[in-house]
Amino acid sequence: MTFESQKASYTVVSTLFTGETNCCYMARLSDDMGGRSFTIIAVKDHEAIRTLMEAESKIVNLDDSQFVDAFSYGNDYLLVFPYRQERPLRTFFVGDALTLHEVEEIGTNLLLSCISASLPYPVLYLLLEQGQINLAKDGGIYFSYNVDLKTMDIRKTERDCTVKCAQILRALLATKEDQKNISYELISRKSDNNSYSSFTELYRDLRIAAMPVKKSGLLVRIKSFFVRNADLLFGILFWVCVILGIIALVLLLTHIVWGDVPILRMFINTFKTIGTESLTQ
Q: What is the dihedral of CA 87, 92, 98, 102, to 10 degrees?
């Protein structure tokens, strides 16, 4: 399946989500199948289309790398965003392996991503609510757009998005509740009262209450290293196991065919003779 816009032609590689209101696809440029990937949100619900088209000028006219294209195709309205391999925050965040400062930095990066997203607040709220938040290996935050627009509420504002973001930050900081965690106490208190009205207000509170940078202990740094490089380490372990398995299979087949393992003869015969004396006599 291919979607044509005035800017480009997008060829669908796989379907990410199918729903009543919209579908999500991973696609590539038709003339560059080995290049960049994109997430296409194809909206088929007329009410949702009207809402997004009203908000289109807010994102199309901004020089923002998180938005690529928007166009009508048949009866659908399509939004195109960059695609990046998903690393869900809820899966890859391991608070026990991080320092309080590192957790606060992740929270700060989440806030900055919300501020720089330049998305209509009803859409941004869905990204936060549906967990379309990803944690990069370096602690950065980026969004994915495999979102279900069925529950989109056009009345959502920056205040709603900020309150939702504060709840997520509170959950992250709760992993360090046993430490001198001023940021957790402050954000928890204001979240309970739904006091936040803007991202800048939440950002200010987090930065003011953040723990000063302190060198972490050796054990924490080791755990942090393994968490950050888990994908690489498991990949290396996988290939080591594959190689060892192949070697074991070759040795087994050799033993079945020849009755022994020829490569081991060099080790066995080495000890049969010491100097000019044979140990077999």
A: 30
Confidence of residue 136 (pLDDT cuts 50, 70, 90): very high
CA distance 33 to 104: 39
- Provide the token pair at 181: 């965690």
For the record, the structure tokens of 276 come out as 């000019």
3-state SS assignment for residue 139? coil
Q: Record the pTM.
A: 0.71
Query: What distance in Å separates the CA atoms of residue 161 and residue 167, rounded to the nearest whole number?
Result: 10
- Cβ neighbours of 49 (radius 10 Å): 18
N-terminal to C-terminal alpha carbon distance within the chain: 79
Q: How far apart (Å, rounded) are the C-alpha atoms in residues 41 and 61?
A: 19
- Environment class of 42 (CB within 10 Å of its CB; exposed 0-12, middle 13-18, buried 19+): buried
The label of the residue with tokens 């899966």 reads: 91
Biggest distance spanned by C-alpha atoms of the chain: 97
278: left (phi over 0), alpha (psi -120 to 50) or beta: beta
Give backbone dihedrals phi and psi of 65, rounded to 5 degrees, phi first: -70, -15
Give kind and range of the element (H or E) at residue 144. none
Residue 279 has pLDDT above 50, yes or no: no
Cα–Cα nearest to 73, from 6, 148, 151, 144: 6
pLDDT in tens, 172-231: 999 987 777 788 888 888 888 888 899 999 999 888 877 564 555 556 556 555 555 666
Q: What is the pLDDT of residues 35-44, one digit of tens each?
A: 789 999 999 9
